[in-house]
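Example with several molecule types.
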Amino acid sequence: MLLRILSLLLLIAIWQVASMLAASRLLPEPLAVVDVMLREARSGALFFNLGVTLARVVISFGLAMFFGTLFGVLMGRSVTLDRLGDPWLVVLLNLPALVIIVLAYIWIGLTDTAAILAVALNKLPNATVTIREGARSLDAGLEEMATVFAMPWQTRLRHVLLPQLAPYVAAATRSGLSIVWKIVLVVELLGRSNGVGFEIGTAFQVFDVALLLAYALPFVGIMLAIETFLVQPFEQHVSRWRPKTA
Amino acid sequence: MSPVGVPRQLEIKIARKAFRTTSGEVREVLRDFSTSLAAGKIHALVGPSGYGKTTLLRIVIGLDRDFEGTVTLPPGTKVGMVFQEPRLLPWRSVLDNLRLAAPQAREADLVRIATDLGIAGHLRYFPGELSLGLARRVALARAFAVDPTLLVLDEPFVSLDKALAMRLGDELAMLVERTKVTTLLVTHDIDEAIRLVDHIMLLGGRPAKIAADFDIAFPRAAMTVDYAAKIKAEIGAVIAEAVA
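Resulting structure tokens for the full complex:
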């Protein structure tokens, strides 16, 4: 932990030195960025835009994970569905994010629905592929056990199926969160009038690097906090039954 | 279904059960296997490996429906099953494994069953922390926890050392005597079968069917060394004849 903090401090120190050497408004000092951050925070704009972006991340991520898990389980367990769905997956996987975003805006309009749908569609194939791997490695013996003991579907889902998928869900969550929030910024830049991406777009037009960093850095902080305080504890909780390696 | 009244017995009539191998040929495993299992007794299915014993169990408990014939369970049959491997949920504690299989069971009953099988001290453990012997006891406890009317066991003591297998066998026999549950036990250990059960079905032939039936007149506690030796000799004679 100490080493991590030291490493972070070193990064800020390098930034400070570089900005002093450059002496340009295109590379502002760390404190100047903090100033802008405080200004935006006092006006409320910072929290509003962070909140809007975070909401878009959460909804599109949730949609992608829900349907990714559903399709992944179905495709992992049925050869027919796998053959039917696989070409779609390959198309989606290889369609550039930008194409999906632009098409969504053209077909649906410059709305939040289009924005969220575009992001979810970008993440969906990755989630599906990861969960499909998990569904392929499900333990048939445990399923038979659940059948013989006539466990109701809720029990089977919660205690037999999901615990087996948990490592795959965690992997999809990790890679998913970082992909989703980056795509959300692009979506906001291209077609929304609020959110971190929109503010960064505004900053870009006037080359205001301090404003750009004042929005980008807090959001990195939020995603780091989600990873540290939500994703990692969840992972530890679902793997608590594994015998500890000494 | 029997026209007169409802069947109290478990009726098994398998005309034919075949598998298709990966190379495409059809291999017949069972033919004309027909028996009825009296309620409240322990029945053993004895035979060498590869003679369709596990296949037969899977048909009886409804996991395998791809066969020609009928299996009639008494109405309201509740199955308790012990698989060859313990098949516990590794991410749930021992107690939760029992609870999830038997949600209607009272906590006190679960603890009593666990105590009978010597795992009361391990209820908070995860299955991965147990030895194979303990895990098999948990599997046994789970089968009893559902308060079954049909107990099915597939070589439940295989790969345990002889002393432990005998002790678990005795515990099983004691629980069955007390609960009067109809029990179907698969084993390849003839001594174990003679020691524990009321009725032995010897599987033989290819495809397999019942080669011989033995009713044990003096089961378990009533068993004498001489009687056991006599039964074993009879079974040995049948096997020798089948091989010859």
